[in-house]
């Protein structure tokens, strides 16, 4: 199934400057599966900006179809075809 990925707050550096792209993932996949899949395509030199271990890095706001994933079961949310998932970093250097 197709999932639409949006990146903000500088996370595009983890994915070769792409601010958005589509991916194909297996039917029945959950958000945790999506994070693991994105980890495999993330720039290895920038991966620490996106994940720590197999978990999304703290400080990243996640929206599923423009709704905070905290309201959608977070990692357990079962994805549907054409879901739009936005990852926005709230951490900035200074």
Describe this protein's structure.
The protein has 94 residues and is mostly beta strands. The mean pLDDT is 94. The radius of gyration is 12 Å and the shape is globular. It has a 5-stranded mixed beta sheet with strand order 2-1-7-5-6, with no helix packed on it. Strands 3-4 form a two-stranded antiparallel sheet. It has one helix spanning 31-41, and strands at residues 2-8, 20-24, 51-52, 55-56, 60-64, 67-68, 83-89. A hairpin with a 2-residue loop joins strand 5 and strand 6 (67-68). The protein starts with a strand and ends in a 5-residue tail after the last strand.
Topology:
Layout: E1 2-8, E2 20-24, H1 31-41, E3 51-52, E4 55-56, E5 60-64, E6 67-68, E7 83-89
Parallel strand pairs: 1-7
Antiparallel strand pairs: 1-2, 3-4, 5-6, 5-7
Which keywords apply here?
five-stranded mixed beta sheet; mainly beta; single chain
Beta-strand content bin? 25-35%
- What is the element string, with H for helices and E for strands? EEHEEEEE
The helical percent reads: 10-25%
The helix/strand class is mainly beta
The general outline is globular
